[in-house]
Specification:
The chain has one domain: START domain (Alpha-D-Glucose-1,6-Bisphosphate, Chain A, domain 4, 2-Layer Sandwich). The protein is built from 3 helices and 7 strands. The longest helix has 20 residues. The N and C termini lie far apart (45 Å).
């Protein structure tokens, strides 16, 4: 079996850990930041934040030309520290939250998929993470 490539992205959000955690995990916030570009939006988010719980974000092009569900099942949840999940295509993702003197460091590591280049995947996930940072800090 071939080992999947992993990609790691990160940012530091200037906000208290409790706010960062809430904005990351609450559906009413997820729909406001979960997009990689201006011409996309997340129209719906469901989140059952517990081990074995499911999440779903419906991502759609604003012009209605394309959309997809981003969904998976949580394998580990430690409040204000770590979230791990498995996507429906069996890729694993881990997100860690650590408080630093500059804010909350968010580090996301995910197994790459085969459709898009590693660089494109890195850029897309990083763009979403950057949107999250902007949303929380404003």
């Amino acid at each position: 079996m071939k080992t999947k490539e992993t990609i790691t992205i990160a940012t530091v959000v200037k906000a208290p850990i409790e706010k960062v955690w809430q904005f990351w995990t609450k559906p009413e916030h997820i729909t406001k930041w979960n997009t990689a570009s201006e011409d996309w939006h997340t129209t719906k988010a469901d989140n059952d934040l517990k081990i074995g719980g499911k999440f779903l974000s419906r991502m759609e092009a604003k012009d209605g030309s394309f959309g997809f569900d981003f969904e998976g099942i949580y394998t580990n949840v430690i409040t204000n520290e770590k979230i791990s999940y498995t996507l429906l295509d069996d890729r694993k993702v881990t997100v860690t939250f650590s408080t630093t003197e500059n804010g909350v460091q968010i580090t996301e590591t995910f197994e790459a998929e085969n459709q898009n280049s590693l660089e494109l995947q890195h850029q897309g996930w990083q763009a979403i993470l950057n949107n999250f940072k902007t949303y929380v800090e404003n």
